[in-house]
Amino acid sequence: MLKLPWARKNDDNSKGICFVIKPMWLNHIERVVDIEEQSFGEPWVPQAFRHCICSREHGAFVSLIENRVAGYAVTTYSAGSHQLCNIAVAPEYRRMGVARCMIMQQLALLGGAKQMLAGVSDKNLPAHQFLRSMGFCAISIGSRFFSNGDDAYIFQWKVGAQDRYLELRHPDYVLPDSHKHGVPVVR
């Protein structure tokens, strides 16, 4: 289990929200599929998530807030680069930094790989803006990339593309106190 102590403040009196990111388990699939259906017109089926959980080539993770699945990410691993295959956040947890933490966790797992790729529908402008805010750059267009015939913008994040993660520089975010691991403190 990996605890990411970055949390977005809700208001001036808030102490922030802690996200716990851990590997996806079979008992998470029902909630993950529910989020998937709320997020995409052509959702993945439960068997696709089961395959990713059992596969060594994939990493499947969930983000938990108060033991409730708030979002998930699925990545394909290879020696030179990783591909972000699927990421979504439940509507009630959007705009709280959940997806940002999931991406940061995936970037931390790059290991020897030098880049991460993501294919995003040409119609999904919020996802384009989000990936750009994380330091991804659109590098090409994939014609009829998706099964429904939609084109995709291929985004790339390279090691060294940013000095540090945007989370660490953004004034609305808090950092952990190194002596109290996982407890957010205001900058």
How is this structure best summarized?
The chain has 187 residues and is an alpha+beta fold.
Your description of this structure?
The chain contains 5 helices and 11 strands; from the N terminus they run βββααβββαβαββαββ. The protein has one domain (2-185): Aminopeptidase, CATH 3.40.630.30. The two termini are 26 Å apart. The chain has helices spanning 29-39, 46-54, 98-108, 125-133, 166-169; strands at 2-4, 7-8, 19-23, 58-65, 68-77, 81-89, 115-121, 137-142, 152-158, 173-177, 180-185. It is globular and about 40 Å long.
What descriptive keywords fit this protein?
187 residues; alpha+beta; Aminopeptidase; 8-stranded mixed sheet; 5 helices; 11 strands; globular; disordered C terminus
Number of helices: 5
Return Rg in Å. Answer: 16 Å
Poorly predicted residue ranges: 1-14, 163-187
Write down the overall geometry.
Answer: globular
Provide the CATH topology: Aminopeptidase
Residue fraction in strands: 35-45%
Binned, the helix content reads 10-25%
**Assigned CATH superfamily:** Gcn5-related N-acetyltransferase (GNAT)
Spatial separation of the terminal alpha carbons: 26 Å
Spatial ordering of strands, largest sheet: 1-3-4-5-6-7-9-8
Question: What's the helix and strand layout?
Answer:
Elements: E1 2-4, E2 7-8, E3 19-23, H1 29-39, H2 46-54, E4 58-65, E5 68-77, E6 81-89, H3 98-108, E7 115-121, H4 125-133, E8 137-142, E9 152-158, H5 166-169, E10 173-177, E11 180-185
Parallel strand pairs: 6-7
Antiparallel strand pairs: 1-3, 2-10, 3-4, 4-5, 5-6, 7-9, 8-9, 10-11
